[in-house]
Amino acid sequence: MSEMNEFDEDVPEIVKRFMYVNRRAPYGTIYALECLEVVLIAAAFDQDVSVVFLDDGVCQLKKNQDTTGIGMKNFSKTYGALDDYDVEKIYVEKESLDARGLTAGDLVIPVEVMAADELREVMAQQDVIISS
Questions:
Q1: pLDDT per position as a tens digit, 45-60
Q2: 3-class DSSP state of 26
Q3: Alpha-carbon Rg of the chain, whole angstroms?
Q4: CA neighbours within 13 Å on the CB side: how many for 128?
Q5: What is the pLDDT of residue 57?
Q6: CA distance 12 to 125
Q7: What whole-number distance in Å separates Cα of residue 122 and Cα of residue 73?
Q8: Cβ-contact 74, 65 below 8 angstroms
């Protein structure tokens, strides 16, 4: 009987469905940038990653952000790296966009806009939900 170790290719890899929920404005705290970094790290380890933007979190994706007045680096273009890490499940709550006068065309990356009730269904299918 041969011993199996954690590096055997025949051992099925356990993949969890991780959903990262972004609710906060992009600047003023470290939550938005740190959440983006965590998403990229999880995706680098081949986990099933999805990202949701709702409430003020939708502002993280807004095009043409000017952060010179607050003295912080604009990191909105970094969301383009999600595609490089094969993060394709990017959801934005329709009601949050509407409340802020935004559309999918106002955002820096392609997203799937979903109504709140549809989004709840997708959330219910996840193994882990992390909200920031």
A1: 888 999 999 999 999 9
A2: coil
A3: 17
A4: 11
A5: 95
A6: 21
A7: 32
A8: yes
